[in-house]
Amino acid sequence: MVTVADLGILREVREDGDTVTVVITPTYSGCPAMREIGHDLRRRLQEAGYQDVTVRTELSPPWTTDWITREGRRKLAAAGIAPPDPAARLTPGPVPLTLTQAPSAVTCPRCGSERTRETSRFSGTACKALRWCEQCLEPFEHVKEI
Amino acid sequence: MSDADEYGAYQALAEGSDDHRWAFGTGFTDPLEGVDTTVPPGVDGAALAQYCLMLGDDALIYSHRLQQWVTRAPELEEETALANIALDLLGQARMLLARAGRADGSGRDEDQLAFFRGEREFRNVRLVERLDADFAELVARLLVFSAWRLALLRALTASKDPVLAAIAAKGVNELTYHRDYAARWVVRLGDGTELSHAKMQAGLAVVWPLVAELFIPHHIEVTLAGVAADVREIREEVATALDTVLAAATLDRPEAKPAAAVAGRAGRDGIHTEALGYVLAELQSVARAHPDATW
Fold this sequence. Notes:
A: alpha/beta; 2 domains; four-stranded mixed sheet; B: mainly alpha
């Protein structure tokens, strides 16, 4: 299972005796999982014996899919979700429009084919797009670069 | 994920607390928990709060209007797209409203601000208030709003308030996806059939009278120079983006007179169109009926 460390959500853990402070960064602005992640962290650390647990949110620098570790990417692919490519670095100045679909070689996590296309920019969650494999004919999700 | 794994995850959530409302997303906590929200020295907290409400209300009201399209969109893929766009905006609204409540020292939280302010206290621009008559009008409005908000948030990443700058930095990437989604649809419909072209042109015509308002700086924004974005400075960037899309879509820029203000006051001053009343009635009715309820 992908962990918050794998996803780059967990930024820092500082322990000082019985006290521990955890810093997390939200993925998308509206991500509904952040509350559960915070609670889960608190609970696990308390179970591990820490008396005083603080979970802090760090908004800056903003989360990027580039923070997903190699292990995280491997686990995503193993779960049938195509991991993101490197995110485009924002250059200074206005953000350029992309009016046409950029050809990208997102490989099918099931059969490995590069012949896949995007069917929807947005999928079941904000972070993923929906794609379809022209080789094995199966749909799959792709974590969008951000 | 296997069935066992999925059950295990939910099981863990339920076991973890003595609160059995484990369902994903219920029981919202402060979106700025642990974030240092101290007002920077030399910045007027009350003005900063008003500014956060402006940007937060834009997102909150527009999110609600987009959510109303769920179950009504022409295709399932567009429905999930609109729902996700609405969710991104809602997340931005939550952070901005939470920040407003802390900046003015009132101690009001996001819920109190969202559900218990009256119409005259909302500070959103009038562009976001109307429910679109059809999908063409929807993508026209989404294009204008997203292109504008993207430029605005980009400017805000340099804000002297680190919390605003951080919220803006997150929003820039999200808004890019929103804007490009809308732009592609405008191009598809504009450069489509005779019917789709006509509807797309008509959709733009409905939206255009409310564009001028987006670039009129409010006196609060002027007071907050260095903290707030200057909407006059993003005008060219937004015009270029819109013109690029319209050209690709073979559409004309509408020749629309800007919608009249009321004695110089419009959305940013709490003077709204009739449409906002309906949004607030739906948004606020449950909370107002049970003001002391907790989830």
